[in-house]
Specification:
The chain has twelve helices and 15 strands. By secondary structure, it is α/β, with parallel strands linked by helices. The protein has two domains: about 70 residues, DNA polymerase, domain 1; about 290 residues, Aldolase class I (TIM Barrel). Strands 4-5-6-7-10-11-12-13-14-15 form a ten-stranded mixed sheet, with helices on both faces. A three-stranded mixed sheet has the order 1-2-3. A hairpin with an 8-residue loop joins strand 6 and strand 7. It is globular. Bound molecules: iron/sulfur cluster (SF4). Iron/sulfur cluster binds next to loops. It is found in: Cytoplasm. One of its GO terms (molecular function) is rRNA (adenine(2503)-C2-)-methyltransferase activity. Its cofactor is [4Fe-4S] cluster. Belongs to the radical SAM superfamily. RlmN family.
């Protein structure tokens, strides 16, 4: 449970870190009836209220006590940026100890039969211990794990924004406006499975049918490949999607950009994925950042197809042309991307290409914080509170 200090030096309890049974217990310890927990959960996750004084069906005495002893996540937004097309929005959230993390909202208009989507890309740690060379967060080093409440708060921030002002794709008149979050991906700052307990707690809170009620199948946990944690996840009774940041099909190449590969080489990672599929019968997505001339050659395409062939239809490759602003890598051209994907198709490996988003607002993880901290050295930016 996250505590933040209040004016009377008593630590405040972050209610967003509590499941419904934990909230019931917390209220019980304060002499309150357990049914108040459901009312409070409703205010937090259905009404999306973040002001105790507005929770009109709670007695005034309880509202005052909540204001004194509890809080509703971190609320300081240091920076908020919208891409020119308003399909990507990014916030820099300041935590109670001054650490900064980024969250991104990605908005997708309807395609064919599928409806609009609003996906929040959530951070799970301040900084990261895994040091992938193509990642701005990886260059910062590790600060600390985020609490469950700090993870949940990122989702609620954008949920409130969409509730207040539903989004419709510009240039697509007649499409229904979207006013709620449809998906969560743990692909922001940090390695989610390194912060296993808090991440799982946050997902269970957001999944609760008494509260936010987001289906587990709409949640994706992305990992660099922490083998023991993947095995543990396969035993959880939670149908979340698993994505592996693969990015190279050989140990030699993968270890150059992803130091974690030296600890958990591809043979162990693939064995864990195979067992994960056997236990869950769920498809696993393999994220593959295409670095021109580095891992996108025909030879590596062939090796990738061979690596994933044993997983058959349970493997899907998400090809991501590198965002050139993140490091000294080059984005491959459309012909190279097509040729790479064709090799995978020829081997029966389903794949897609993720469109680049939000370049104009530094959407790749860690970039906004890096820019912010550089500029803060020169001048203090204004604080925005929602
Ligand atoms: S890609 Fe993920 S695991 Fe690797 S350094 Fe960046 S945040 Fe950490």
């Amino acid at each position: 449970m996250t505590m933040t200090p209040n004016s009377s030096t008593q630590p405040k309890t972050d209610l967003l870190a509590l499941t419904l049974p934990q909230l019931q217990q917390w209220l019980k310890e304060r002499g309150e009836a357990p049914f108040r927990a459901k009312q409070l959960f409703n205010w937090l996750y259905r009404q999306l209220e973040n002001d105790f004084s507005a929770m009109s069906n709670l007695p005034l005495s309880l509202r005052e006590r909540l204001a004194e002893e509890a809080c509703i996540g971190p609320t300081i937004i240091r920076s908020e940026l919208h891409s020119k097309d308003d399909r990507t929005r990014k916030i820099l959230l300041e935590l109670s100890d001054g650490k900064l993390v980024e969250s991104v909202l990605m908005l997708y208009p309807p395609i064919g039969d599928s409806s609009s989507r609003a996906t929040v890309c959530v951070s799970s740690q301040a900084g990261c211990a895994y040091g992938c060379t193509f990642c701005a967060t990886g260059q910062m080093g590790f600060d600390r794990h985020l609490s469950a409440g700090e993870i949940v708060a990122q989702v609620l921030f954008f949920a409130r924004e969409l509730r207040k002002e539903p989004w419709t794709a510009a240039g697509l008149p007649g499409t229904a406006a979207i006013d709620h979050i449809t998906n969560i991906v743990l692909m922001g700052m940090g390695e989610p499975l390194h912060n296993y307990t808090n991440v799982l707690q946050a997902l269970r809170i957001l999944n609760s049918s008494d509260g936010f009620n987001l289906g587990a199948r709409h949640m994706t946990v992305s990992t660099v490949g922490l083998v023991p944690a993947i095995r543990k996840l396969s035993q959880e009774n939670l149908q979340v999607n698993l994505a592996i940041s693969l990015h190279a099909p050989t140990d030699e190449l993968r270890s150059q950009t992803m130091p974690v590969n030296r600890k958990y080489p591809l043979s162990e990672l693939m064995a864990a994925c195979k067992d994960y599929i056997a236990s869950t019968r769920r498809q696993v997505t393999f994220e593959y950042v295409l670095l021109s001339g580095v891992n996108d050659t025909m030879e590596y395409g062939q090796k990738l197809a061979e690596l994933l062939a044993p997983l058959k239809q349970f493997a899907h490759v998400n090809c991501i042309p590198v965002n050139v602003t993140t490091a000294s890598y080059q984005t491959p051209g459309p012909d190279a991307i097509r040729a790479f994907r064709n090799i995978l198709f020829e081997h029966g490996i389903s794949n897609s290409v993720r469109a680049e988003r939000g370049d104009d607002i530094a959407a790749a993880c860690g970039q906004l914080r890096t820019r912010f901290e550089n500029s803060r050295k020169k001048t203090e930016l204004p604080v925005v509170t929602p």
